[in-house]
Amino acid sequence: MDITKAIAELKTHPDFTKNVGMILVHNGVVRATSRADGAQVTAVDVKPDHDKIAALCREFEQRPGIWRAMAEAKSGCLKPGDDLLFIIVAGDFRENVKATLSELLDRIKAEAVSKKESCLR
Questions:
Q1: How confident is the model at residue 121 (pLDDT cuts 50, 70, 90)?
Q2: CB-based burial of residue 15 (10 Å sphere; 0-12 exposed, 13-18 middle, 19+ buried)?
Q3: Going by DSSP bridges, is the β-strand pair 76-78/113-120 parallel, antiparallel, or unpaired?
Q4: How far apart are CA 16 and CA 59, in angstroms?
């Protein structure tokens, strides 16, 4: 996902200005250290469930004040510094958009993306 292009496309929609006062973006990247024990990570094998991610975005777009929710997860063998997960949430007010981005991120990570680290010990 090209974040700049995706936001520019959203802004071309005729209903954008009536519905959007905030856009939040998440750009998750592969860390060089493991969350579990701090060991060095050389690669991460990522397997997203694209259908589940799309379903979650549709679910979260039904929330009050949310106009669009979009997400893209990369798949395959990724190295530290590689982009891993993009999320864009556009909506009316920060209270709605912030909460939605946070919850959508947590749900995608818990329900729709599996990762296996290759770590140096």
A1: very low
A2: exposed
A3: unpaired
A4: 19
